[in-house]
Design brief:
It contains six helices and ten strands, in the order E-E-E-H-E-H-E-H-E-E-E-H-E-H-E-H. It is an alpha/beta fold and 216 residues long. Helix 1 (34-49) packs across helix 2.
Amino acid sequence: MRLLAVDAALGAFACALLDEDRVLAERRVDANQALEGGLAAISALFDEAAVAPGEIDRIAVGLGPGSFTGLRVALSYAKALALAWNLPLVGLSSFDVLEAGARQLPRLTVVEGRPGIISARLCSVAGERRASGELAATLAALLPRALPEPLALAGATAGVAPLLAERGQPVFSLPAVPSPILALARLARAMPAAASPHALVADYGEAPAAKIPTRA
């Protein structure tokens, strides 16, 4: 299977072409250049790999949570290309990408949003819960009290670990994913495609800080 992966929810605009597990090409564009440079980066991938759009089997895209702007850009590009090339589109959560198949329980995966804001997912034997917002409040919502067992941490853990330690929660960090875009691409090979590219919806985590008032 040949696959194009695109993601900008976790920082820079990143894209990669894979043939099964072999990386044909990989590119990154600075986050503030995603809108202008994203499509050029994708085009450069195909040139570098000497692959035509008609020779790939599917497209994968990160659905967030993460950067509002980056997520919108990457998802828009992925949907447009899937429709134009008549290819199936697979969407993956940033949480799944940052965990990269980790199975340790309990497990807390954290994605950074705007400054001071996180989205987090807690997986335990009791199931899965999510929360988004200010760092301390989000942790309190998911972990109102310390767990007796060590908590595995994945993702953006730098600000989370000290707060948990202050509350007496034993933690350990899972190995960081070396390349989130390659993790996304590899996970997407076994994931079912959306019924339609239009069916994929961005997961922004927390609502935007600024809201436009509506008239009564």
